[in-house]
Amino acid sequence: MPSSSVLPLRNLNTPLFHFLPSTSITHPSFQSQAMGSFSSSPSTSTPQHHPQDNLDEHKHKLSPVLQYHNQTKHNFNHYARGPHGLDWANQPNPFRRYLSSPLLSLLHLEPNPQQQPQPPLYHSLFLSLPSPHPVSKSTISQFLFDSLALSAWKTTGFSTWSLRVNPSSGNLHPTEAYIVAPPIPTISDSPFIAHYAPKEHSLELRAKIPSGFFPKFFPPNSFLVGLSSVFWREAWKYGERAFRYCNHDVGHAIGAVAMAAAGLGWDVKVLDSLGCEELKSLMGLCVFPEFEIPSRAVRGKIPEIEFEHPDCVMLVYPSGVGGFDVNWKELSEAMLGFDKLEWKGKPNSLSEEHVCWDVIYRTAEAVKKPLTLGDRFSVEPFRRSGVCGEGLYKGLTVREVVRKRRSAVDMDGVTRIGRDTFYQILLHCLPSGCQSGGKQRRQLALPFRALPWDAEVHAALFVHRVVGLPQGLYFLVRNESHFGELKKAMLPDFLWTKPEGCPDELPLYELLRSDCRQLAKQLSCHQDIASDGCFSLGMLARMEPALREKNVWMYPRLFWETGVLGQVLYLEAHAVGISATGIGCFFDDPVHQLLGLKGSTFQSLYHFTVGGPVVDKRIMSFTSISRP
Is the CA virtual torsion 460, 254, 235, 555 positive or negative? Predict the structure, then answer.
């Protein structure tokens, strides 16, 4: 189609603007009874069973998950349920510690231009990985320093707060991490399980494990990283929607781990055949008392709400290692036996008082994954990503990018990027990398190769300030086997044409030409940051079919995939000299309506914006890991 052509105005007005609100948005009505600032009525997501003759067990499991998802949507006339204000006296401590457990200090690796050898260049990791380093105190220190450690402290007035390498919704950091490793000289003479304490950049020794565990199940020079979530940390601020945000953060942490590992020549894979009980035993989470879910939202002293929910465990192993298999049944039996280990340390308290949003914990129970046998562990060959121009990057090392990444608070509304820069960023967002004639589907490129399922997440992009590219609505198809389904589900007037200069291997399509800045702002809860950048986007997951085909435990995993994609956008933005930030607040169904989507087949799970940041000079920043 000629570059000057656009959709007729009547078509433009219909899909884009007829649903925009004419009235201000209000919070849901909250009753002030026993709990003050939030509703004391039972959650509307409590499963309501209406048995039907043809209702199978899977549908029973799916129903509460879809109920949660629909209940926690923001809409133009109301937000999802949450606190009316922030209870600063009970803000959760962002740092978990295991009191009385031995603290094993790691090396503090502040940036050093004289260090030899220097970490690899950031953009080079998307082309090939360096030779694998041995596992040692030095490399484990570097790995954690570049993935889950503190990256800076900020201060203004009487307030001081820390930032981390792995981003988090509201900087609340619900994600905890554990290292399970063979003996590492000067850390431990025995195989061990340790909790990572980012504030101290140290390992808290939780238990020692049998010496035969690693040789029996995993290749030499490998170790495990476990992730868990404290839902209360996010729920303190965000209420019922917090379960979504916790799983975004798991995805960001997976992406951060994969990138830091790549810098050391290590590969990463989520061991997703394991179930929730195996992960709980592996990370020693049985130390937390059993949490009894109330029948409605309640407020008070509920210390057991501070438990950690087991999310995933990742195998970190040398890149290029030959194929090996994992005996899931024997591995499960070994991990479940860890309950009998001598566990050290008592978890610290995070808050004096709490609010329990019951629907979060019911949904977490509904999507708990059991052990699934029959899946073979697959070591996939590394797939390089496409290149539109290596000169677009600023020559930064991977450490400089991951540790100096920041979440933009505002965008300047002025900064522009070139078309090739935009295309390069998106090439690094593709799951399958670049292969002549290959289709995007399997997750083989960095860092998506950490995820063992085919890509389920796509991106609808609002292009605002990209030189050489018309403003408008675009779509990135990250699994091309979904293309026909997407095109059929969306508005028939969309163009679906490749934009000018777009690389052949980049499945990016122009849908509509229009100035979408005001629209992007309104869809992202009226936030200027969605319209003032170079581009913003909504991540759309193929949701209900994935839950039906792969089971309901895919629900949090879809959010993990959006978090990994978001992590790439963060790093790409910094690497080309701009900034980015995730947007958790958006109006779900109006986004779907814009695209013509109906039902739960495709759902918007996460928004993002990329552009020139506004730096608040009132805030002082200290890049040292130590508190100023």
Answer: positive
Residues 119, 398: contact at Cβ < 8 Å? yes
**Rounded distance between C-alpha atoms, residue 479 and residue 485, angstroms:** 11
C-alpha 65/C-alpha 71 separation (Å) is 10
Indicate the pLDDT class of residue 19, thresholds 50, 70 and 90.
very low
At 136, list the tokens: 């040692």
Buried b (16+ CB within 10 A) or exposed e, 481-494: ebbeebeebbbeeb
Pairing of strands 602-611, 579-583: antiparallel
Tally helices (H) and strands (E) across the chain: 16, 22
Among residues 421, 607, 595, 424, the alpha carbon closest in space to that of 512 is found at 595
pLDDT at residue 109, rounded to an integer:
80
The pLDDT, as a whole number, for residue 253 is 98
| Amino acid at position 222, single letter | S
CA within 13 Å, CB half, 390: 10
Strand partners, 356: 298
pLDDT (tens digit per residue) in 375-406: 888 888 999 999 997 789 989 999 999 999 99
Q: Which of 281, 413, 407, 285 is nearest to 335 (CA)?
A: 281
Name the packing angle between helices 543-550 and 554-575 (round to 10°).
130
**Type of residue numbered 256:** A
Question: Taking 60 as the threshold, does the pLDDT of residue 220 lie above it?
Answer: yes
The pair of structure tokens assigned to 10 is 């009547």
DSSP conformation class of 426: H
- Please, what is the average pLDDT of the chain? 90
Rounded distance, CA 445 to CA 215, Å? 28
Encoded amino acid at 193, one letter: I
Residue linked to tokens 């499963």: 47
> Hey, how many other C-beta atoms are within 10 angstroms of the C-beta on 110?
11
SS3 87: coil
Query: How far is it, in rounded angstroms, from Cα 97 to Cα 187?
Result: 18
Q: Which string of b and e fits 315-350 if b means at least 16 CB within 10 Å?
A: bbbbbebeeeebebeebbebbbebeeeebbbebeeb
Residue 355 to residue 302: CA distance in whole angstroms: 8
Element holding 11 (H helix, E strand): helix 9-17
Q: Residue 210: what pLDDT?
A: 97
What is the per-residue pLDDT across 273-311, written as a single tens digit (0 to 9) for each? 999 999 999 999 999 999 999 999 999 999 999 999 999
What gap in Å lies between CA 429 and CA 509, rounded to an integer?
Answer: 15
For 454-469, letters b (16+ CB in 10 Å) and e give bbbbbbbbbbbbbeeb
CA atoms within 13 A on the CB side of 104: 21
* Residue 394, both tokens: 């600023």
Task: Please state, in angstroms and rounded to a whole number, the distance separating the CA atoms of residues 618 and 452.
Answer: 44
Task: Report pLDDT digits (tens) over 575-610.
Answer: 999 999 999 999 999 999 999 999 999 999 999 999
- Beta-carbon neighbour count of residue 154 at 10 Å? 17
Q: Which H or E element spans position 401?
A: helix 398-404
Cis peptide before 117 (omega within 30 of 0): yes
